[in-house]
Amino acid sequence: MESTESTKRYKFTIPQEEYITPGHSACPGCGEPLAMRYLLKALGPNTVINVPAGCCAVIPGVWPRYAVKVPFVDHAFECTAAVSSGIKAALEKKGMDDVTVVGWAGDGGTVDIGLQALSGAVDRDTDFLYVMYDNEAYMNTGIQCSGATPCGAWTTTTPGGKHIQQRRDKKKILDMMIANGIVYGATVSVAYPDDFIRTIQKAKGIKGPKFIHAYSPCPSGWRMDPRKAIEVSRLAVRTGAFPLYEFHNGKYSFTKEIKKRKPVEEYLRLQGRFKHLTPADVAEVQALVDREYEALVAKVGASGR
Amino acid sequence: MIEMMNANYAAARAAKLARVDVTAVYPITPQTSISEKLAEMVQKGEMDAKFMMMESEHSAMSALIGASYVGARTFTATSSHGLALMHEMLMWAVGARRPIVMPVAARTIGGPWNIWGEHHDVITERDTGWLQIFCENNQEVLDTVLMAYRVAEDPEVMLPIMVIEDGFILSHTVDIVDVPEQEKVDRYLPPFKPEYPVDVKNPMRHGGLMMPDWWTEFRYLIYQSQEVARTKLLEAEKEFEAIFGRSYGGMMEYYKCDDADAVLVVAGSAAGTAKEVADRYRAEGKKVGVAKLRVFRPFPAEEVRRLADMTTTIGVFDRSYTYGDGGAMFNEVRSALQSTGSVMKDYVGGLGGRDVTVKFIEWIFDDLLRIAEAGKADRTVEWVGLKDGTGRW
């Protein structure tokens, strides 16, 4: 079985077409242009993207230059999913049903300020793909804690110490969206481009509201060597801190199953944002990751693969 | 065809006649029945539009911006807190140059809670860049929505327009409305074809980051479009009159102003009451006139200045108060009339649903005529009809 699986993987080819041109303005090691590059390779040219304020509004370029080869609509922070609904409605009215509408927003614009609009769009059964690129804080404004900042992480608004610390873990946005009524949900990581592209291609073929949680490293915000962005992303998956899985037809399954998870400390120690954590704190984070991972394993098990 | 309807239904019927493609609605009193009527017409198949139920007014405006980018003719309606919640996206719609048309059933904003009519909500949004047209009656609401699309979608304008109807006074009051035939409306209003739509065959970015080196020029273009809109509004009304036989006096209607001793500038439904009082006073030989401020944005400064050639004494009725040196309408009128030597006074009233009665307007005209005779105003601002005069209560 294992060899068949790896042969299948080997045969998978990444589409050659590029939709992100040279000239974007992301920081070195940033996950976001990679994520958008993979997304567009998977979706092709019949795609319209809309983005709110955030890194996604800055990275593609400054007017009149633009480094993405599909139509792109910018808008305010909290309205990504609502604008997506409007674009989709207008396309449907004009009979253009073969265009994929993508709402693309960061974690802050999704789990915090954009949550209402996202919930509304799912509730309206908008046929669109919502992608949250998760760099785990408000990075465009300079590293402030968001609802997706992980437990223990330093940010400028959770500077560590007794009084203000990020004690709670990330909002479970995918669970929230599943409860809300999405037809398809998945996590993807820029460290696994083949899985990323396969997942988006699968989502494209499904009608209704789909939610993708994309892990997107931020070397400047995570206080790490930009050269290690992919290594850290890969470790996030291998330690179970960011497991890759999907939800479809009421069932959960791993898209990248990790049999032997590495200690989460290996993931944390590459990033300056966790350097203040004591061994006891690290053990706490490990316990949290274990709990979450086991809960996910149970959900996958209950789904009866 | 003559029908009986309130202004909300008139607004919804206008949206249908305009062949709106996409609507996005969220309920708020006293606008709600516009949304309900749209839902009903779409449900029955009478109106061929996408109907979106939103989870907030902010999202309603956001969705329409998205739909309009694709080239859909878009429509929503709101009031009060809904308009305030939209504020951010009202600004965005202007910067994105989206020709969205939106009736606003003008209402108070809390607290304390009050759902009734006044102008504070729309006056608060006067600096967003939206064009703002105040309507006197239900017929004017229907007709103005049609004219608004003509102007908003003009390639030289491309700006959104608010069609303002007084909450409850018009929104819930049934009146005679002449509903135009679809064929005539189609002749008047061609389909919306944006110059730069969202199109996968011609990808471009819409609303992307703009640096200080061009921002001023971009804002200047919006200013220019507002200026062009003055001419376009007059043209749209002239052609409307040619096809439908009705008109509303352009930017500002002068009612018996020519030889008046005093004129009252007034917007919205109170203009009708003021005209009625002016008729009675004229019959008694008292020379008063009414200047109906129809278009508030772009502000009709030229039209206001013409008043100085007709009369010496000018009152302004503000159905809102913006906590400056007089209400917003008063200040804008005063600013246009500076150096004309006109004697001016601001009258504030009709707030929170308090009726603007014939007696109320008579009080203002009597006061204005006293001022005209004295040649100077006793004070800048008068709150009319306070329960215990102007003292503490």
Q: Can you walk me through this structure?
A:
By secondary structure, chain A is α/β, with parallel strands linked by helices. Chain A has twelve helices and eight strands. The longest helix of chain A has 24 residues, at 279-302. In chain B, the strands form four sheets. A six-stranded mixed β-sheet of chain B has the order 10-12-11-14-15-16, with helices on both faces. A four-stranded mixed β-sheet of chain B has the order 5-7-6-13. In chain B, strands 3-2-4 form a three-stranded parallel β-sheet, sandwiched between helices. In chain B, helix 2 (32-43) links the parallel strand 2 (22-25) and strand 3 (50-53). The interface between A and B is large, with 43 and 42 residues.
Determine the number of helices of chain A (DSSP H or I, runs of at least 4 residues). 12
Structural class of chain B: alpha/beta
Q: Into which percentage range does the β-strand content of chain B fall?
A: 15-25%
Total of helices of chain B: 12
User: Which word captures the global form of chain B?
Assistant: globular
Largest sheet composition of chain A: 8 strands, mixed
Low-confidence region ranges of chain B:
none
Helix fraction of chain A, binned, reads: 25-40%
Strand content of chain A: 5-15%
Could you give the order of the helices and strands of chain A? HHEHEHEHHEHEHEHHEEHH
- What is the number of E strands of chain B? 17
Q: What would the average pLDDT of chain B be, to the nearest integer?
A: 97
